[in-house]
């Protein structure tokens, strides 16, 4: 039985309220639409959210990470350890600053960097570590910082997906070293495109401000100057106003996502998918912001490929995504000597993972509909059909 009569359920959809839309209209009418008062307000509210730490906003999570690497002094000759289970930009920015990405495999239980392997991958050239909190689940933050301290490494947290996540009750970003957030349209909190960097002190924040706009130190009637090589990474005030409207709802968003994730586990419980070996994500309801709900398909036993599975979902009016194929197998990284068999857990997970719909506008009925479809497809294409 197909469910095509119902409206298509995408795998993600932002919730932008009327107050935010009106706020954007006001900004557009204000006469100042690029970086200005809305950015200042956004940075101030972000800083308050992160316990008063300095924050600067940027026009993507990608450039935020790149600037964090520059602030940490990472460059040619340095190694930066990260995970292959991430969006491509995590490793690309390491290349961008002239450093060498070093991958370590994931822990299959969390799908995040295996911290035991991190320790083994440290060499005299290692300058920094870039953990990624896949789907918003942090790594063991105590252990991460213990290792970083012991080896005098900078930590650039790729917390792109972890806005609203916590560790032992403390917000991710409210402690630690350099913490990079993304406000891309699919993130829990969005500014359409955008990012923010949480830093340790005002010197770093001043450097971030300069890197954000051409290294400019001075503009005015008395002339202009720049003293570092900066880029064009500033956020528009229209985007900042969207971010402000979203930021003020982050707790509600996180709570709703946790509720939906719980509904997923309940609906999957005892069903065909789980019986046939579909892997569910780590059940964490204390730290994770539930940025995504990702399952892993038992492709050895199912009689269809992942693409066919996603096509079957689509035929039932349900969108899905892949986050992510293992990054070291992308051509850019293969050309740098990486290949199959190097990070088996990431490869296995990357080949079998499917992201199911999860966004705050969904209902428990939507979750039931997705799980019914997954169960039905698994039953239909299971080993005993
Ligand atoms: C893990 C991770 N790192 C980095 C990024 C880059 O963020 P952006 O798309 O804002 O550049 C993203 C989001 O796309 C991400 O999910």
TrEMBL record:
InterPro entries: DegT/StrS_aminotransferase, PyrdxlP-dep_Trfase, PyrdxlP-dep_Trfase_major, PyrdxlP-dep_Trfase_small. The modification N6-(pyridoxal phosphate)lysine is found at residue 187. GO terms for molecular function: pyridoxal phosphate binding; transaminase activity. Coiled coil: none annotated. GO terms for biological process: polysaccharide biosynthetic process. It comes from the Bacteria. The active site is at residue 187. Keywords: Aminotransferase, Pyridoxal phosphate, Transferase. PANTHER family: DTDP-4-AMINO-4,6-DIDEOXYGALACTOSE TRANSAMINASE, TRANSAMINASE. Belongs to the DegT/DnrJ/EryC1 family. This is DegT/DnrJ/EryC1/StrS aminotransferase.
């Amino acid at each position: 039985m197909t469910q095509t009569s119902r409206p298509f359920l995408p795998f993600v959809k932002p919730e932008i309220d009327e107050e935010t839309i009106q706020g954007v209209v006001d900004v557009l009418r204000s006469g100042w639409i690029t970086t200005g008062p809305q950015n200042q307000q956004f940075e101030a509210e972000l800083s308050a959210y992160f316990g008063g730490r300095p924050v600067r906003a940027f026009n993507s999570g990608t450039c935020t990470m790149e600037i964090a690497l520059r602030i940490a002094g990472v460059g040619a000759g340095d190694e930066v350890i990260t995970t292959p289970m991430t969006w491509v930009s995590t490793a690309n920015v390491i290349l961008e600053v002239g450093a060498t990405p070093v991958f370590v495999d994931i822990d299959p239980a969390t799908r995040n960097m295996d911290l035991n392997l991190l320790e083994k991958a440290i060499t005299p050239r290692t300058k920094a570590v870039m953990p990624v909190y896949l789907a918003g689940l942090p790594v063991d933050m105590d252990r991460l910082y213990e290792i970083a301290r012991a080896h005098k490494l900078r930590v650039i947290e790729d917390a792109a997906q972890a806005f609203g996540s916590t560790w032992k009750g403390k917000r991710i970003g409210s402690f630690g070293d350099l913490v990079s957030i993304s406000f891309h349209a699919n993130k829990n909190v969005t500014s359409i495109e955008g990012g923010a960097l949480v830093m340790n002190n005002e010197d770093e924040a001043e450097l971030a401000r300069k890197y954000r706009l051409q290294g400019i130190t001075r503009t005015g009637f008395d002339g202009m100057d720049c003293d570092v090589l900066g880029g064009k990474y500033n956020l528009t005030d229209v985007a900042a106003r969207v971010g402000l409207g979203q930021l003020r709802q982050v707790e509600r968003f996180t709570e709703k996502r946790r509720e939906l994730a719980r509904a997923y586990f309940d609906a999957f419980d005892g069903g065909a998918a789980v019986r046939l070996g579909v892997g569910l994500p780590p059940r964490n309801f204390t730290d994770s912001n539930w940025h995504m709900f990702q399952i892993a398909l038992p492709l050895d036993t199912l009689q269809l490929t992942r693409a066919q599975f996603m096509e079957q979902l689509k035929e039932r009016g349900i969108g899905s995504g892949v986050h992510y194929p293992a990054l070291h197998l992308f051509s850019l990284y293969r050309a740098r000597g990486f290949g199959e068999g190097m990070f088996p857990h990431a490869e296995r997970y990357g080949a079998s993972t499917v992201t199911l719909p999860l966004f705050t506008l969904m209902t428990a009925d939507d979750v039931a509909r997705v799980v019914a479809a997954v169960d039905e497809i698994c039953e239909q294409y299971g080993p005993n059909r």
